[in-house]
Design a protein that fits this description.
With 150 residues, this protein is mainly beta. The protein contains 1 helix and 13 strands. The strands form 2 sheets. Strands 1, 2, 4, 7, 10, 12 and 13 form a 7-stranded antiparallel sheet that branches. Strands 3, 5, 6, 8, 9 and 11 form a 6-stranded antiparallel sheet that branches. The longest helix has 12 residues, at 3-14. It is elongated and about 65 Å long. This is C1q domain-containing protein.
Length: 150
């Protein structure tokens, strides 16, 4: 195979490796606080803006990695009516990183990291008990994208 043919094939294959998602918690523009709950709760980000590769499920709130690779994952949370937001990114049942904010109501925090994910690894955002999160269709978000396959 010539070098040009190899590059052309790699370019064609790259299309099958496109994965990106971004969703906010609420679909309404009404000022909405979710929680606090007595138990740990999986947040379902229903307002999907981007879902290239369809790896994010807006019914369950779970992102499932379609292939092994390096991903960038980010979440943003705004403080709800409880006066604090405490959320974590959960990977296959393990907390990976989080946000904790006790500033004034509606203040927000964000956190993100690169992560090597195996095919079928699952990620979701957990709201810890006693906390609330606020959204207006664009303030509390869950996003990620594939940087490169491995």
């Amino acid at each position: 195979m010539t070098r040009v043919e190899k590059l052309e094939r790699e370019r064609e294959d790259r299309g099958s490796y496109q994965v990106a998602f971004s969703a906010s918690l609420m679909t309404t523009t009404d000022w909405t606080s979710v929680g606090p709950f007595n138990t740990v709760t999986t947040l379902v980000f229903r307002n999907v803006m981007t879902n290239i590769g369809n790896a994010y499920n807006p019914i369950t709130g779970i992102f499932t990695a379609p292939l092994k690779g390096l991903y960038y994952i980010r979440m943003t949370g705004s403080v709800g009516n409880s006066g604090s937001v405490d959320i974590s990114l959960t990977k296959n049942g393990w907390s990976m990183f989080g946000i904790y904010n006790t500033n004034e109501k509606y203040s927000s925090s964000s956190n993100g990291m690169t992560m090597v994910l195996e095919a079928s690894d699952q990620l979701w955002v957990t709201l810890w008990s006693g906390n609330s999160i606020f959204d207006q269709s664009q303030l509390s978000t869950f996003s990620g994208f594939l940087i490169f396959p491995m």
